Amino acid sequence: MADGALCREPVELTGRERSVLRSVAVRGTEPELFCELEAGHGHEHATPVGGRGEEPPMWLRWWPGRRVLETRALCGAESDEGVFCRVPGGHEGGHSYELAAPEEAGPLADAGLPAGRR
């Protein structure tokens, strides 16, 4: 059962960020990117960029007036069911396996996240 909701703040990569990703051979960036931290967190947002399964994954982190594109290890926390947190280490808010998309959050919400790292 999900305890909280995902932030889902939308963001688009800039031309410069796309160029940096191409220069380091990161492929598979989704056309629509959203913050994957818990709703109601502080000012920092974070979304993975590039294909899932890259270790360590590339992240776009952004705050009002500032953006950072970086590699950062995953949190590494694991639920009792063996599901790993899939957001960057040191993140604000709950772990990804505790969260549901905003439309799914509520008294009967079930995160339905697959087991293991993505």
Plain-language structure description:
This protein is mainly β and 118 residues long. Helix content is 8%, strand content 21%. The strands form 3 sheets. The protein has a 3-stranded antiparallel beta sheet, with no helix packed on it. Strands 1-7 form a two-stranded parallel sheet. Strand 4 (45-49) and strand 5 form a beta hairpin. It starts with a strand and ends in an 18-residue tail after the last strand.
Protein traits:
disordered C terminus; 118 residues; mainly beta; 7 strands; 21% strand; 3-stranded antiparallel β-sheet; two-stranded parallel sheet
Number of strands: 7
The proportion of residues forming helix, as a percent range, comes to under 10%
Shape: globular
Low-confidence stretches: 104-118
Quaternary assembly: single chain
- The structure class reads mainly beta
Give the neighbour order of strands across the main sheet.
4-5-6
SSE series: EEHEEEEE
The major beta sheet can be summarized as: 3 strands, antiparallel
Average pLDDT, to the nearest integer? 79
> In what range is the share of β-strand residues?
15-25%
The number of helical segments is 1
End-to-end C-alpha gap? 19 Å
Radius of gyration: 14 Å
